[in-house]
């Protein structure tokens, strides 16, 4: 074939081939826990026992992490002046959490007041974790409480770990930064695949409505406002918020967190939405034939706790 004819043939072939369009796919992880009729966490479920829907439409479950998968757990503790006198009620009870975790789980410890500080990198060594918790230093001056920024930084750090990822944050929930910092944290949580489990500190003060009102009137954040923030943080990631008041309450909370992490599943799906909008997520538990347990004669009934929505990437 003459050279000019060969070039013409190549040109026509290339022109006839459709252009290759790259489609970006974001993988969204949905941490899931399932409880039974008495509130106990349910184990032994498989991929086939879950149905995942996005905006009401069933979505293929691209990957599934069973409950036996080891967890990476960051314990993040507020160490500002507000909790200095409260430290005994939660630090010593935290041993319940460490003892209840599975043998393969890895623990890290960090603290914050104005900024995040990493005290112990991920390790299976429970003694090292206890030592890090008990050896914390507290800021006793007029330190800024930058809870939202500190949690956002912690999420970024934990996000780099594999497997099941969770942050147990011991905090008053109070934050002295501008409201815009909350908005940035909320958006980050909608992109994040990390489970956040807040444990509220200062239980007796939180339960005193008169003291709560006086605190708000003094020009600082109220515990009522921080309670709403902690609930929102937990809901955004598929977690739970705990509001203990007594030492026994703290022990019960940590025991339940350890049980939760031992029965946590992770579902992953490919999100092709690129509209920078929020999209609803719902998860159902189904039997081996794909039938939902949702009728009075369809026992046992299960309650599913999972992320409720995610924020899609921009175009």
CATH superfamily of the largest domain: von Willebrand factor, type A domain
Task: Count the domains.
Answer: 2
Order of neighbouring strands in the sheet with most strands: 7-6-5-8-9
Helices, by number, come to 10
Using only CA atoms, what is the Rg?
23 Å
Question: How would you describe the overall organization of this protein?
Answer:
By secondary structure, this protein is an alpha+beta fold. The chain is 33% helix and 25% strand. It has helices at residues 3-16, 87-91, 95-100, 126-134, 147-159, 179-191, 203-206, 209-217, 223-237, 247-262, and strands at 26-35, 50-54, 57-59, 63-65, 71-78, 106-112, 116-123, 164-171, 195-200, 265-271, 278-285, 303-306, 309-311. Helix 5 runs parallel beside helix 6. It is globular and about 60 Å long. The chain starts with a helix and ends with a strand.
Short description:
The chain is an alpha+beta fold and 315 residues long. The protein contains 10 helices and 13 strands. It has helices at 3-16, 87-91, 95-100, 126-134, 147-159, 179-191, 203-206, 209-217, 223-237, 247-262; strands spanning 26-35, 50-54, 57-59, 63-65, 71-78, 106-112, 116-123, 164-171, 195-200, 265-271, 278-285, 303-306, 309-311.
